[in-house]
Amino acid sequence: MEWVRTWLVISRRDDATSKVEQPAHTAAEVRQLLTAARADPAVWHTRVESRRELAGDKPTHCVCGEAYRTAGSWPTPHDWLDCGCGGHFWWRCRECGLERVEPPAAYDCRPHWPGQRMS
């Protein structure tokens, strides 16, 4: 599991209510969408928004073999650590007590653990 950067190219056409949003996963795709928008005389405004998305599968089992509990499709507040990078999922094994953070915290990450005061 890791954070990946994606982009959303948003174009407005002559009809002010007409908005087209197109996702792009590479810089080449962004360039291609911008070139097409510039060539279209009906497009009067285009902007690009950078986004970060989690890619990859969530772990289902601890290294000891115990299955992680699931509380639904979204983590509960104690399963998610806010961080400047976007955040991390946090699992704690009921069997061995081992904690796992995904995506792994980078050198500049400062995840806020439950009960920790935000500064």
Give a written overview of the molecule.
It is a single chain. The protein is mainly beta. The protein folds into two domains: 2-54; 58-118, no CATH class. 11% of the residues lie in helices and 35% in strands. The chain has one helix spanning 27-39; strands at 2-13, 19-24, 43-55, 80-81, 88-92, 99-102. The strands form two sheets. The chain has a three-stranded antiparallel beta sheet, with helices on one face. The longest helix is centred in the N-terminal third of the chain and has 13 residues, at 27-39.
Give the SSE map.
Elements: E1 2-13, E2 19-24, H1 27-39, E3 43-55, E4 80-81, E5 88-92, E6 99-102
Antiparallel strand pairs: 1-2, 1-3, 4-5, 5-6
Question: Which features would summarize this protein structure in a list?
Answer:
three-stranded antiparallel β-sheet, mainly beta, 11% helix, elongated, 1 helix
Strand order of the largest sheet: 2-1-3
Major sheet size, sense and barrel closure: 3 strands, antiparallel
Mean pLDDT: 81
Number of helices: 1
Specify Rg, calculated over alpha carbons.
Answer: 20 Å
Strand content: 35-45%
Low-pLDDT segments, ≥5 res: none
Overall structural domain count: 2
Approximately how much helix is present in the residues? Answer: 10-25%
Number of strands: 6
Q: Which descriptor suits the 3D outline?
A: elongated
For the record, give the distance between the C-alpha atoms at the N and C termini, rounded to a whole number: 27 Å
